[in-house]
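## retry 2 of 3
previous attempt timed out at serialization; input unchanged, resubmitting
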Amino acid sequence: MPFTWPLDPRDLFTERYPQMLAFGLPAPDVDAVRAATTDMWADAPGGWVYEWSRLAGRYAAAGRHDLAALAYGNAKFPTLATEPMRRALAHQAEQYGRSATGFPVDFERRVLTVPHRGGTVRVPVHVLAAPGLPDDAPVTLASGGVDTWKMDLHALFVALALRTGTRIMAFDLPGTGETSDIPMTHDGGNEVVEGLIAEARAVGNGQVAHLGLSMGGHYSARTGLAGTVDAAIDLGGPVETAFTPGRSFAFGMEGIVGNALGLDELPSPDRMGARFSAFDLRPLLDQDINAPMLVINGADDVHVPQHDTLVFEGRRDTRVHLLPDTGHCAVTKMPEVMALTCDWLQRTLGIDGASDRRRRR
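## retry succeeded, writing output
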């Protein structure tokens, strides 16, 4: 059962303000919501979901469905712990769909059925491709983390589709977004991702890359280390030290992660450690079977220790970038991250960038 916990919205604005602007919301509108918001959970004036939803409603009334989707995305942030936040996610999906006619890429929504713990689970995915992309293009499986999901990262995924010559298959991790009906577990989450990789191999030419941000980067690091994809990009993923029992969390992350794990109350450090330690990728780090990997993060990340990026240095077929003067997932340096990612992905998958650019003209 989802739970709420003591959380000051001022802390979330302190941490996420650059991300809100980077994703495309006008600064004056974000500043106005920031000034008006005084409570995290109240569905009333001054409440987080109320103020963000009010802004989203104004965008929708003005026909700016793209901005409405972003604002509703903030309204349901950081977890679906309340009914108003679940409604905000539904409104986000509606506004996102209405904005699809203006996307600069071909767009398709699919619901895939993949194995999960002896049964199956349905996973909604968004497929984005540059206009005219051949059917036999490689596929990049992509996700965000525990609190930033596929619709929130739309602009990033569009840029990847237009610049890499791959077809993007975006999804939400188990325990989050439209896949929140199952908890995020070490074994179950891996099984869902492996099922999506199998689906992606059947879509294009059989080549599959996997890109993940934050906790999504954990899963892309895992598939890269296990060699189950042809290329893996880990942007700010927790890998080893981040899962150390007793480690503290910042900006309410213990409640966000606890909800994703399917817990029913704010976990004690011992309970969190018992659940979270199973995600430690040290057994895979000790092997030498990895696919080509690109690992990027900001040096000032408050959530993921530098070790979880630097531990990849010296590995075969692996490039590591710890960018200075930026934080989690290097979000404030996203143009640099995108340039590194797109160039590396094209070279790794053998995509002809020149012919790809001609096809997009």
